[in-house]
Request: fold
Amino acid sequence: MFNNFDFSVILPSLPYIWEGLMFSFRLTVTAMLGGIIIGTLLALARLSGGKTLGFAAKTYVDLMRSVPLLMMILWFFLLAPFFIKITPETSALITFTLFQAAFYSEIMRAGIQSIPRGQINASFAIGMTYWQTMGYVILPQAFRNMIPVLLTQTFILFQDTSLVYAIGATDLLKAADNTGKLYGRTVEMLIFVSLIYFVICFSLSMFVKYMNKRIAIIR
Amino acid sequence: MALNYKWNWGVFFETIPSGDVTYLTWILHGLGWTVAISLCAWVIALALGSIIGTLRTVPHRGIALIGHAWVEFFRNVPILLQLFIWFFVVPELLPRDLSMWVKQDMPAKEFITAVLALGLFTSARVAEQVRAGIQSLSRGQRSAGLALGFTQAQTYRYVLLPMAFRIIIPPLTSEFMNAFKNSGVAYAVGVWELVFVSRQMVEETGGQVIESLIVPTVLYIICSYAANLLMSVIERRSHVPGFIVAK
Amino acid sequence: MQKHHLLLGLVMGLIASTATAQQLDGTLKKIKDSNTITLGIRESSFPLSYLDATQKPIGYHIDICNAVVDAVKSRLQLPKLETKTQAVTSQNRIPLIVNGTIDMECGSTTNNAARQLQVAFAPTTYVTNVLMAVKKSSGIKSLDQLSGKPVATTTGTTSVQLIRSHEKGKNIDFKEVYGKDHADSFLMLETDRAVAFVMDDNLLMGLIANSKTPQDYAIVGEPLSVEPIAIMLRKDDPQFKGLVHATIANMMKTGQLTKLYAKWFNSPIPPKGVNLSVPMSEQLKAAIINPNDNPAENYKK
Reply:
């Protein structure tokens, strides 16, 4: 099977793979930004001490963490048309953001909890409100501490974008798979696309390592 | 648009075409395989991940590098692609007789391939957590161990690892849940687990698509929720006072 | 008794009045209101519905659907009607029809009684035989030679069930292996993980034509099943179904459909310009003479 390996199919399919890659990036970046914002709010809700709010946030996070992402993507796409008109791309953007928010919220919660309690007390002592304390004192530090973990979660997210095949959106993997099938060259295309994933994720991982050294708060 | 769908929950008690079991039996059977794949993969991931994660922290450059290479190698390609490579590419690299045996005669070949792929993929992530756990301990602990006359190995065995593992229970729980949810990829090589059964049920019932998809989803939720609850009990029992570490 | 007659008359009157009013409803109204029609397509259901080298959906069923779209345009007097496509899978095609995301599925769906509970079908436009692909060098001619050997098929297809029934009926035992899609199942045959791949004949022909060494493979065996393939529509939508039915029946009558068949099954087709050379089956000829949406159950001997 490997004596007639033919990588020539890759060249004509590059524009579609590039398009797919761009969709994967768009999805990753949107879900990361949206997810971190919503996730931070969820984390604050859980730590606010409000009973109902905390419980609601916890339930949301636990539920999201229990559902396989693939099922979540599929269900949202099947149910959404009963309420709104939606394209597979928009559906994927919304699902990924809502789903990733749960994971980012756990990271931010850990980040907030890693800040010594004394800092909160100190802020209250100088007359700051809860939200001021969080906004000016705790979150900037928590965020900084957690950047490596947030980025790690982001490349898990990048790899998971391949699950959008379930709703007929075309990402990096799907674009490669489609062309591979068209020419009967699935093996070549999938090895090629594995290399793309590897190069991207590996570079990101090196970047995380570098950031880790640069920004760690030394105690 | 009105929902023009004919529900039939009774479908689970119907017999599969040309078979003598009900769809419910089928689904439960699928759940059994899902649990088996996840647990076996988790054993591999935890064992290898602990070793690799520990190796990454030892004060020896070469060994730490091997650990690092392992992690980067297994976590940077999506699991579905890794599984594809294990199943379709790796056997072709073996000598012909061995290759044919692996492809045709090896018992439970699909199950073994899926467990191996998922186990190795997850091991890279477990290794990262173990490393983070060890590195979150203050440097004094290692020094204290060595000062007491422990060897490097003994310091790990009696001082560092027991602490590190207790600290990283929450993130390990997440990794286990991920492994459980990722086990669904095993359908791609033909293991009759939940995703496979669900796809097959969609086809064989002809029309009861929604039922065939809802039940596996709910089973996934129940199982990972249960795992989460169990782990949070263990977490509370083994909590180290004064330590909070990142997930 | 009299009361019942009164009620019956009332109901009949209501039906008659809605029928004569000719107001748009169902899918046609939806298309008119949104000025778009969405076609569900498959990405690799050769040669009925697949993506070409520029990722554009093409195929025998796509051409038929485009003819239906033209009919919709003239019926609604919407020459600028926008046509969208949405890739579907065997998992989500029925829910996507039911929830209104797609208006027609132009893929390769078997029309069977169970599916008719949820959806409706256009007249049968292709009849597939479930056969098997083997390597010529293996010398295999029939399923019965496969006892104890690995046989591939694709998850979530009827073939899984057909193989099971065949084993039970003949009291033999295959070692089944399952690919997640047809390309994977074919790869199993190619890499000797399986000695045969059981699937719809049109799909097997497409896979072989596009493989690295088409001359190495053959399609053999006795059909495990004969199944009518049709375009899928929403249920309980007589207006749209009527239009689709009339359009396709007319294509059958005027010989347009036979021409399309020749274009996709007896001439070179993208991407490699291979000619599948499949003569039209007797069952399809019968379905063209007498356009119908009979389910697979009617094709069983």
Notes: Chain A has a mean pLDDT of 89.
